[in-house]
Specification:
The chain is an alpha/beta fold. The protein folds into two domains: 70 residues, Orthogonal Bundle (Arc Repressor Mutant, subunit A); 113 residues, NAD(P)-binding Rossmann-like Domain (Rossmann fold). Helix content is 44%, strand content 19%. The strands form three sheets. Strands 8-5-4-9-10-11 form a six-stranded parallel β-sheet. A hairpin with a 3-residue loop joins strand 2 and strand 3. Helix 1 runs antiparallel to helix 4 and helix 7 crosses helix 8. The N and C termini lie far apart (41 Å).
Length: 205
């Protein structure tokens, strides 16, 4: 990722990619920033500005060739390859994540799952056998895994994060309801449904 490009712009690229993929599945070959904007609730000017950070993907008056733009965005986001991911936390949420097919369909392959609870070690979830935490560092380093998901209680999340970073992980998707302290060079994204629900209640009359 080019450092001068705002993170908020990077955050919109997967949204564009998802919309373009849906258009392609609908049999559409060409689209415009106006059409994308209508679908996404984003101004066409903003879409054009975002895409201009990465080069000229369309022509004035002719729009965007959808298959080409999909390929280009996949390259920018580095999702034109498969990423191995480790999951820490084999509770209810972790189990649900292991059953979710959307990760693999978009190029993110969960390869190992870990937990600290003795009663969960060796438990079979889908095709995974839960591994103990003391195997995490060796496994991550051996397989050169750079991405992880955390689905553990808040009080354990920072310890798990520190271990993942020490093992070489550079990107963490955190489901624990806590902000994590990480060094420069490590990217964390947060998923806390309660925060989103609290935000929505503000708008309910």
């Amino acid at each position: 990722m080019t450092p001068t490009i705002p993170d908020i712009v990077i955050g919109r690229l997967p949204v564009y990619l998802r919309a373009l993929t849906r258009l392609s599945q609908e049999g559409v070959d060409v689209t415009s920033s106006h059409e994308l904007g209508q679908r996404l609730g984003i101004s066409s000017a903003q879409i054009r500005k975002d895409l201009s950070h990465f080069g000229g993907f369309g022509k004035q008056g002719t729009g965007y060739q959808i298959s080409y733009l999909i390929d280009q965005l996949r390259q920018v986001l580095k999702v034109n390859r498969e990423w191995d991911v480790v999951l820490v936390g084999a509770g209810d949420l972790g189990s649900a994540l292991l059953h979710y097919r959307g990760f693999a369909e978009r190029g993110f392959k969960i390869t190992h799952v870990f937990d600290a609870a003795p009663e969960k070690i060796g438990k079979q979830i889908v095709q995974f056998s839960v591994q103990p935490m003391d195997e995490l560092q060796e496994t991550v380093q051996q397989h050169n895994i750079k991405m992880a998901m955390i689905a553990v209680p808040a009080e354990a999340a920072q310890r798990v994060t520190d271990l993942l970073i020490a093992s070489g992980v550079k990107a963490i998707l955190n489901y624990a309801p806590i902000n994590l302290n990480v060094p420069d060079g490590v990217n964390v994204q947060y998923i806390d449904p309660v925060l989103h629900m609290q935000r929505m209640t503000y708008y309910i009359p």
